[in-house]
Amino acid sequence: MAPQTQQSATGSDYARMITVAVSAVIAVVGSFIGSGAAGGTPIQDAAGGALAADATVVAPGSGAFSIWSVIYAGLLAYAVWQFFPAQRTAERQRRLGYWIAASLILNAAWILSIQFDQLLLSIPIIIALLLVLIRCFLLARRYRGDGVIDAIITDGTIGLYLGWVTIATVANITAGLVAVGFDGFGLEPDVWGVIVIAVAGLIGIGLALRGEGRLAPTASLCWGIAWVAIARLTGDLMSTPTAMAAITAVVVIVIVTIVARLRATTEDPDRVPAATMV
């Protein structure tokens, strides 16, 4: 049988790749400004400090935000990876490209909304970002890659991005509700902290089951939830019930991920190689 020739990239392929690359640059520049490195106000201090570690009982500690450096590095790596000859016409990249670009633009828009003190506007933006990343996650699962490198760059980056934005969305919505004077229907903040963390935990369980035990979304979501626990046990806004709920959520999500991973690799090890289940 004659070897198959590689399909040539089309104009639409190059348009997609350039769009992703430009969007990645915009997002990284936005993050540079949002971090305060360019003289602007750091995200946690913008919008009246609504997203600071002590703003609400479900706000992660400031150390949690260091994961953005890993996520942005992955996004830049993806922007380069998609230009490789074998990736230019790959069906998964064709399916994912514009969705990833959309996530990058939404990311930059979210930073701008916070920097301009538009906390309420930031909520629909981050919800849209979360929905786009869920779409990316499902597409990456449906259109699988062909090696460990692609799994790390594509699946790993999408997974980390999704997991972190999940906990960030929860914290953002909570901050918005507090800002408009929501009193929690008379319930104590500790009670709401436990409820909100439980919701985040259920989302993590859903991602673990749907993703057949992929590691990246679990790692970043648990990272964020763990920093909620740290902030509630050591920060200015203490809440032991919320911290205990966060620790429990991390343990449960990890266990479900391991079980889902083992089940997937045991039932069909050829379809889902453990080495590529990032």
UniProtKB/TrEMBL annotation:
The chain crosses the membrane at residues 14-33, 65-84, 96-113, 119-138, 158-179, 191-209, 216-235, 241-262. Keywords: Membrane, Transmembrane, Transmembrane helix. It is found in: Membrane. Its main location: membrane. The keyword Isomerase does not apply. The keyword Glycoprotein does not apply. InterPro entries: TspO/MBR-related_sf (IPR038330), TspO_MBR (IPR004307). It is a multi-pass membrane protein. Pfam families: TspO_MBR (PF03073). Belongs to the TspO/BZRP family. This is Tryptophan-rich sensory protein. It comes from Leifsonia stereocauli.
